[in-house]
Design a protein that fits this description.
The protein is α/β, with parallel strands linked by helices and 167 residues long. It is built from eight helices and five strands; from the N terminus they run E-H-E-H-H-H-E-H-E-H-H-E-H.
């Protein structure tokens, strides 16, 4: 079994919101690897970063992605940084990857600058821009479909994904 669709993108791209709607539209289950990590460890991602460090979180994330890719047949949402691991990128080969593209201003609005997101604690806008700039080529390289989400209703984004998935 493998996921019908894997969603990637920066924080604020809409992976969770769009993912749930897309799963409903396709009649499949939705799964989020950040939620899987939280369930495994029993604490929020932000606490894992602070208490255990980013390296430990990335190890847990890679395990969660590997497991989800092997056993989940629905819509899978990856944490924004999951694609940084080369082993994860290799595992994603052959899957239907959808990159939800978001601009900086929209991401900032959606994430909020007083966010509990661990990589955005010091200068959130600057950190988010740096993170997005670094990850964009990876997302684009993995994606079979890229969908812009700025100023769009989640249902419109889902519709575009569904059309893109059709043979």
């Amino acid at each position: 079994m493998s996921p019908r669709v894997v969603l990637v993108g920066a924080p604020g791209a809409g992976k969770s919101t769009v993912g749930k709607l897309l799963a409903e539209r396709l009649g499949v289950a939705f799964r989020d690897t950040d939620a899987d990590v939280e369930a495994t460890v029993g604490k929020p991602v932000g606490d894992i970063f602070v208490e255990d460090g980013e390296e430990r979180f990335r190890e847990l994330e890679a395990q969660a992605v590997r497991l989800a890719l092997a056993e989940h047949g629905g819509v899978l949402s990856l944490g924004g940084g999951a694609v940084l691991a080369e082993a994860t990128r290799e595992l994603l080969g052959g899957h239907s990857i959808v990159y939800l593209e978001v601009g900086l201003s929209q991401a900032v609005q959606r994430v909020g600058l007083a966010s509990a997101r661990p990589l955005l604690v010091l200068n959130p806008r600057s950190q988010l821009k740096k993170l997005m700039d670094a990850r964009r080529p990876i997302y684009e390289g993995l994606a079979k479909i890229t969908v812009a989400t700025d100023e769009r209703d989640p249902d419109e984004v889902v519709e575009e994904i569904v059309k893109g998935l059709e043979p």
